[in-house]
């Protein structure tokens, strides 16, 4: 069963059956003003912070995500009314045609009902704090039509705690009024707590009080004002507030008209320039075109044409888009994370920054610097923190809640609680991300920049990296394996003072990247010092973690091994085995055996399970993972984030057929015809898919905001297609299915463009036997070329 299809030409996913099993979301805005919307215009907007500056209300985890950003239409001759988006009115889908087109930073809602064609496009222009609802109406009947158009949104009380709990305060501190066509919303307890709402026309009516507009014992499905065809002109102080502007108009047969609504940040006076500018629809079209160019500039930096259409659609459009959304929004604005906690997760943001330095180097660099300031002088990262706490331009001053764009800054003693709060993997990801950023940009000077530590003092970026590696080198157990501490990526595996196989493999990977970097910049002494550490890590892993056919997951504080051949539950774990191979710790035969075990025990048609068999009996020595339902999240689900690690591992082993088998199993595109099973959107990787030990096997949950996106993109581009930057050259090292005869990649790198054609006449999975640059043979990769130039690269496998 399918609910929509991919329109690659327009870079849209078209939902032509809008009653999807769950909300299918999209992200609007790329700077300060943002919105999360679903296929029926449900969702919410925020300014800078979804926790401290929510603009519109949202009721999460409800049968219908609402209130949303909707436009009502009313036939003033018959009294019938409906909404351009299917919800909230919810017309019979056998009588009305509804479509949603999710695009890159915009969503368009279309309706054909009662011979009125309507479209509502929601977008936020680049670099402007205004949300635009562009509405087009067309009379498709043979008689004049008298219509009323009503906007509707409900304002938030800004701070999530106020929005959800503190009604004794918020209900009596919110006010609204209307003047000169503009609604102004005011949160009296915030000095700058204002929003405005306006339109491209002179309104014929308005309402600012939600309960007056809706009426008693009603909701957004049947507002009293819409039903009667007239607004009440309500506004005032206290209560719940909304933004309703009404326009009456008459359309002749075949006539089309266009109106717009605007939601903005600030007092009423701030509306004037935007209202004037966007009253001209040509300027809306220009803003829309600017968004298209913004994304075109990003997407064209890596384009592929392969025998796998799902891979092409994903890598060329949706996978990069999702990875970019993660680096822009962090992880705390979605229909799942609804803003109750915000900031940067250290491990999450580090990995997000590793995925897209080619398409968003400025944002990746900003995130790296924020993370470096969130690192303690001991070498561990603050697991979750607000980057504003350490912004040097704010000089650590304490902020109140009086300004909605400012987040309160605690004292350092309130921020850094010591190693008991440290996650053993967090900071190691940052080492890899810095290495990848330098490979992409060539910005070696970054290493010499001085950056503060979260608990005081400062050091260069290079020194920060050494402290991270030294911390993991110190925090080891009796077998020389890194301790698990508070968590080791798997937040439900609570090893504490026990030992984590995954973190030791991750430590080796970070060391390897750092050693390569040190040698490249001429720091040979440091390279040799850390090479000794790396050898000790590798030896300890192979001496203590190998179990005959795979690598174990860890060792508890009491010395009990987790993930062994003798275990009945939690027998094989994905993270440790994939990282053993991908990191380079596992030599050939052990690597083959480990990944063979992954395939045997963990593979499903929907991806690789995190562990198997699932735990069914609570065991607190292993951790909370044993108290999670079998087949759900960390306990035997297809946890998407680590799946790409297995793709990378198989690529390192040279087994392209299996790597692509694993890739295709998780690929959302390939589940477009199975939505009755998947339920979630087929254009977004989800955090997890129910595993085979759960009755809903194959059901996907928690879309968009997941490290799966960045890792899927990184693994597919760098290791399956094998086009990855190095410090001074572009490496071409594909690992593909044997039956692929050829594929093409266009890759921008350091200002030059490389048109890469890969041929596979011998039908092998891996191994480049000939490499050419502009017709001349080269070895060991493609040297960096002059910025602004364009080149042809041929790679022949064999």
Produce the secondary structure layout.
Blueprint: E1 4-7, E2 12-15, E3 26-28, E4 33-37, E5 43-47, E6 58-59, E7 66-67, E8 70-75, E9 81-83, E10 97-103, E11 106-113, E12 116-123, E13 130-139, E14 145-152, H1 160-164, H2 167-170, E15 174-179, E16 182-187, E17 194-199, E18 205-209, H3 210-214, H4 224-228, E19 236-237, E20 241-251, E21 256-265, H5 271-278, H6 281-299, E22 302-305, H7 309-329, E23 344-345, H8 346-355, H9 361-373, E24 384-385, H10 412-415, H11 426-441, E25 450-452, E26 458-460, H12 461-474, E27 483-485, E28 496-500, H13 501-520, H14 524-544, E29 554-555, E30 561-562, E31 572-573, H15 574-582, H16 588-602, E32 603-604, E33 607-608, E34 611-612, E35 638-639, H17 643-653, H18 656-666, H19 675-678, E36 686-689, E37 700-703, H20 708-720, E38 723-725, E39 729-732, E40 742-749, E41 752-759, E42 768-773, E43 776-777, E44 782-783, E45 790-797
Parallel strand pairs: 41-45
Antiparallel strand pairs: 1-2, 2-10, 3-4, 4-5, 6-7, 8-9, 8-14, 10-11, 11-12, 12-13, 13-21, 14-20, 15-16, 15-19, 16-17, 17-21, 18-20, 22-40, 23-24, 25-26, 27-28, 28-29, 29-30, 31-34, 32-33, 35-36, 36-37, 38-39, 39-44, 40-41, 42-43, 42-45
Helix pairs in contact: 7-8, 7-20, 8-9, 8-11, 8-20, 9-11, 11-12, 11-13, 12-13, 13-14, 13-15, 15-16, 15-17, 16-17, 17-18, 17-20
């Amino acid at each position: 069963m399918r609910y929509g299809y991919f329109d690659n030409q327009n870079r849209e996913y078209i939902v032509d059956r809008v009653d999807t099993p769950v909300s299918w979301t999209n992200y609007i805005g790329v700077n300060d003003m943002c919105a999360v919307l679903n296929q029926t215009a449900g969702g919410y907007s925020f300014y800078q912070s979804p926790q401290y500056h929510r603009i519109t209300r949202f009721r999460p985890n409800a049968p219908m995500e609402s209130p949303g950003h909707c436009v009502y239409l009313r036939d003033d001759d018959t009294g019938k009314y409906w909404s351009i988006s299917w919800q909230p009115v919810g017309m019979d889908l056998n009588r009305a045609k509804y479509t949603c087109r999710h695009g890159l930073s915009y969503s368009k809602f279309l309706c054909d009902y009662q011979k009125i064609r309507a479209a509502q496009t929601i977008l936020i222009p680049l670099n402007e704090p205004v949300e635009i609802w562009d509405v087009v109406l067309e009379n498709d009947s043979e008689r004049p039509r008298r219509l009323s158009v009503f906007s509707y949104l409900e304002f938030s009380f800004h701070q999530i705690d106020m929005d959800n709990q503190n009604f004794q305060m918020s209900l009596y501190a919110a006010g609204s009024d209307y003047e000169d066509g503009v609604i102004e919303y005011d949160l009296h307890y915030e000095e700058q707590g204002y929003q405005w709402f306006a339109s491209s026309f002179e309104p014929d009516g308005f309402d600012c009080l939600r309960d007056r507009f809706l009426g008693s014992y009603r909701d957004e499905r049947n507002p009293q004002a819409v039903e009667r065809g007239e607004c009440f002109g309500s506004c005032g102080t206290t209560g719940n507030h909304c933004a309703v502007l009404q326009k009456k108009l008459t359309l002749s047969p075949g006539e089309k008209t266009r109106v717009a609504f605007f939601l903005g940040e600030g007092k009423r006076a701030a509306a004037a320039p935007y209202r004037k500018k966007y009253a001209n629809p040509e300027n809306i079209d220009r803003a829309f075109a600017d968004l298209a160019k913004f994304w075109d500039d990003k997407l064209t930096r890596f384009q592929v044409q392969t025998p796998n259409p799902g891979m092409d659609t994903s890598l060329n459009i949706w996978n990069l888009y999702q990875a970019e959304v993660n680096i822009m929004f962090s992880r705390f604005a979605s229909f799942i994370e609804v803003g109750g906690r915000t900031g940067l997760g250290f491990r999450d943001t580090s990995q997000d920054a590793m995925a897209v330095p080619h398409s968003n180097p400025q944002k990746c660099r900003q995130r790296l610097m924020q993370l470096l300031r969130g690192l303690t002088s001991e070498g561990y990262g603050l697991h979750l923190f607000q980057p504003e706490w350490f912004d040097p331009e704010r000089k650590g001053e304490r902020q109140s809640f009086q300004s909605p764009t400012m987040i309160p800054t605690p004292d350092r003693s309130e921020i850094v609680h010591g190693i008991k709060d440290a996650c053993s993997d967090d900071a190691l990801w940052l080492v890899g991300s810095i290495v990848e950023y330098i490979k992409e940009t060539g910005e070696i000077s970054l290493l010499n920049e001085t950056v503060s530590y979260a608990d005081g003092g400062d050091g260069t970026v290079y020194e920060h990296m050494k402290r991270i590696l030294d911390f993991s080198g110190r925090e080891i157990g009796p077998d020389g394996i890194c301790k698990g501490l508070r968590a080791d990526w798997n937040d439900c595996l609570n090893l504490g003072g026990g030992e984590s196989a995954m973190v030791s493999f991750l430590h080796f990977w970070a060391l390897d990247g750092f050693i390569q970097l040190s040698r490249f910049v001429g720091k040979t002494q440091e390279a040799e010092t850390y090479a000794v550490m790396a050898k000790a890590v590798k030896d300890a892993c192979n001496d203590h973690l190998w179990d005959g056919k795979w690598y174990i997951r860890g060792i508890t504080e009491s010395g009990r091994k987790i993930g062994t051949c003798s275990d009945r539950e939690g027998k094989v774990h994905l993270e440790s085995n994939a990282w053993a191979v991908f990191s380079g710790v596992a030599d050939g035969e052990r690597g083959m055996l480990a990944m063979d075990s992954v395939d045997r025990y963990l593979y499903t048609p929907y991806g690789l399970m995190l562990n198997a068999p699932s735990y069914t009996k609570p065991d607190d020595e292993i951790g909370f993972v044993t108290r999670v339902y079998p087949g759900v999240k960390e306990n035997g689900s297809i946890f998407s984030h680590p799946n790409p690690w297995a793709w990378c591992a198989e690529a390192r082993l040279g087994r392209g057929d299996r790597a692509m088998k694993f890739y295709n199993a998780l690929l959302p595109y390939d589940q477009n015809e199975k939505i009755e099973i998947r339920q979630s959107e087929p254009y977004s990787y989800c955090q997890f898919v129910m595993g085979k030990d759960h009755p809903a096997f194959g059901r996907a949950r928690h879309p968009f905001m997941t490290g799966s996106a960045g890792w899927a993109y990184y693994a597919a581009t760098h290791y399956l297609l094998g086009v990855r930057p190095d410090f001074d050259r572009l490496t071409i090292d594909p690992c593909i299915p044997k039956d692929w005869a050829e594929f093409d990649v266009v890759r921008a790198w350091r200002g030059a463009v490389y048109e890469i054609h890969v041929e596979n006449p011998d039908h092998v999975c891996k191994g480049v036997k000939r490499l050419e640059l502009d017709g001349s043979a080269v070895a060991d990769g493609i040297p960096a070329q002059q910025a602004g130039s364009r080149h042809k690269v041929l790679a022949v496998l064999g």
